[in-house]
Design brief:
By secondary structure, the protein is of the alpha/beta class. The chain has a single domain (2-287), classed as Spore Coat Polysaccharide Biosynthesis Protein SpsA, Chain A, CATH 3.90.550.10. It has 10 helices and 10 strands. The protein has helices spanning 16-30, 48-51, 76-83, 107-112, 154-164, 175-186, 213-233, 239-242, 244-252, 260-287, and strands at residues 2-7, 35-42, 58-63, 93-97, 119-122, 127-129, 135-136, 146-150, 189-192, 200-202. The strands form 2 sheets. It has a 7-stranded mixed sheet with strand order 3-2-1-4-8-5-9, with helices on one face. It has a 3-stranded mixed sheet with strand order 7-6-10, with no helix packed on it. It is globular and about 55 Å long.
């Protein structure tokens, strides 16, 4: 099985905690029984190349030379644009993920169990590890940190490459919403494959990298505007940008992947809906 895996790494040597998390992710990839090409775009991150090496994984590094807008430090859209230059019909899967998750040994068998020629998969909910690395089995953490795309025709590959260039994304936020919309853009099924996949998401050392929540909110709104323009251009539902995670959950919900854990978490999410609606109207009232 041939996989094109796309990610970015934070600088190494700044936070021992973050270094350990990223190495755990990379070691997990190395243990997968697959032919993996790892596409890594480096912006101004330090010590990435010397820490990301393996005889089992072909790693292609891109050094970003494009201007980063909005005072951003990185760009997911630029990462994807670089990666798709490697993409051809020989790849079975295209995977985008963050580098702060763990990849279980059964991952390849899981994604390969879905026999459709064209499909988009994600895993929700994953297991959330807090700042002390305590893992919560029933956390309703909102993150979508992994997308698995299987496209088996030259026509869809070309369309995918075209789509990637239509939606800029700078800094933090909204890329999972864009990636979710790819399913409708390519007219393929979008499903959740969380059952029997223990993927852990680790809390990043935000202080070490001077990450401020207010900046992330600003960045998310900028990326949301880019996404809205993309959705309008391609006649896709605006709710991918404005419907929050509730709409994405509705789109990828997969009854066959339910287990006791996911049912509990979905119930917790449903119970949040009234409060989310109240907050939405409250914020609109305050801004008016």
């Amino acid at each position: 099985m041939k996989i094109l895996w796309i990610t970015t790494f934070r600088s190494f040597g700044i936070s021992k905690k973050n270094d350990a998390v990223q190495k755990k992710f990379f070691n997990g990839l190395s243990k997968l029984n697959s032919n993996i090409t790892l596409s890594v775009t480096i912006f101004n991150e330090k010590n990435v190349k010397k820490n990301i090496t393996s005889n089992k994984i072909k790693t292609v590094f891109f050094k970003n030379k494009n201007k980063l807008l909005h005072n951003s430090k990185y760009s997911q859209s630029i990462c994807m644009q670089n990666a798709v230059t490697l993409l051809d019909e020989t790849f079975d899967f295209v995977i985008w993920s963050t580098a702060d998750i763990t990849i279980p040994k059964n991952f390849v068998n899981k994604i390969n169990s879905f026999k459709e020629k064209n499909i988009l998969m994600t895993a929700f909910p994953i297991y959330f590890a807090d700042s002390k690395n305590n893992v919560s089995s029933y956390s309703s953490n909102w993150g979508l940190d992994l997308f698995v795309l299987k496209i088996n025709s030259k026509k869809k590959i070309l369309k995918f490459k075209k789509i990637i260039n239509q939606c800029p994304n700078y800094g933090w936020g909204c890329y999972e919403h864009f990636f979710s919309s790819i399913s409708d853009a390519l007219n393929i099924r979008y499903i959740n494959i969380c059952k029997n996949l223990i993927i852990k998401k680790y809390t990043n050392d935000r202080k070490a990298f001077n990450e401020i929540r207010e900046n992330e909110i600003t960045s998310w709104k900028i990326n949301q505007n880019y996404l809205i323009k993309f959705l309008k251009r391609n006649n896709l539902n605006k709710l991918y940008a404005t419907g929050s995670m509730y709409y994405l959950i509705y789109k990828f919900f997969n009854l066959t992947e339910l287990n006791f854990r996911s049912v509990i978490i979905y119930i917790k999410i449903i119970l949040r809906i009234p409060f989310s609606i109240i907050n939405l109207f409250s914020n609109k009232y305050k801004s008016s």
